[in-house]
């Protein structure tokens, strides 16, 4: 919610009632840009299952919300816009904006040969070289896991994935997009340095607001660039 609100407010999007089935806590907002591009923003809502009331995070709600939104809207493009951890070894700093080149998982360890590539689950994202050049976004793979922190084994797999940034949803969103053959793009802003000295949860909370504002500044530029363009011209 904190990541989406600055963008939703800036675009003056309105809540879309009855967009999702009543059984799920997901929330949708929508509107039309000045270029006539229809945009729907979906967020995971609050946890009703465990009674915590916190934001739903991780791959389970991410894949379900994406599936339901794709089923409802049949969009031309899905953009995963959010925050992430970044790797200083790949040039990331707090506030760096990444345009992802692909996604992978770093916590689906299935040491049975045919299941190894399934567990990693690499999926390429839609190429957008003109977008990257116009705005100077960094390029890199986003690796996904269901924990904010990491284990030593996670570290090995994230390095093997050549990850530039780390989140808790990207690979799940891209998986649902693949089911519908819908192009997927990731715009991720760094809140914490995964291979740095500070605990990720502390650095994340310190920088969440700043990163959300940075995301709100980057996302309209992305939408303006992609709206109405053929994918071959991104």
Automatic annotation (TrEMBL):
It comes from the Eukaryota. SUPFAM superfamilies: Purine and uridine phosphorylases. One of its GO terms (molecular function) is methylthioadenosine nucleosidase activity. One of its GO terms (biological process) is L-methionine salvage from methylthioadenosine. This is Nucleoside phosphorylase domain-containing protein. Residues 26-223 form the Nucleoside phosphorylase domain. It comes from Grammatophora oceanica. It holds the Pfam family PNP_UDP_1.
């Amino acid at each position: 919610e904190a990541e989406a609100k600055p963008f939703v407010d800036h675009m003056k999007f309105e809540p879309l009632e009855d967009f999702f089935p009543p059984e799920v806590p997901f929330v949708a907002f929508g509107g039309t840009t000045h270029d006539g591009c229809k945009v729907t923003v979906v967020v995971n809502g609050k946890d009703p299952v465990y009674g915590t009331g916190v934001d739903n995070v991780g791959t389970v709600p991410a894949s379900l919300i994406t599936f339901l939104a794709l089923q409802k809207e049949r969009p031309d493009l899905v953009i995963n816009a959010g925050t992430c951890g970044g790797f200083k070894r790949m040039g990331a700093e707090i506030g760096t904006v990444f345009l992802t080149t692909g996604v992978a998982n770093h916590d689906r360890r299935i040491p049975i040969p045919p299941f190894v590539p399934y567990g990693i689950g690499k999926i390429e994202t839609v190429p957008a070289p003109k977008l990257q050049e116009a705005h100077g976004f960094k390029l890199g793979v986003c690796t996904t896991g269901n924990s904010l922190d990491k284990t030593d084994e996670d570290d090995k797999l994230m390095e093997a994935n050549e990850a530039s940034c780390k989140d808790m949803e990207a690979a799940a969103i891209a998986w649902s997009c693949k089911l519908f053959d819908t192009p997927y793009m990731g715009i991720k802003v760094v809140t914490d340095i995964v291979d740095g000295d500070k605990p990720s949860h502390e650095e994340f909370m310190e920088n969440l607001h700043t990163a959300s504002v940075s995301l709100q500044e980057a996302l309209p530029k992305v939408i303006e660039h992609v709206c109405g363009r053929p994918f071959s011209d991104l």
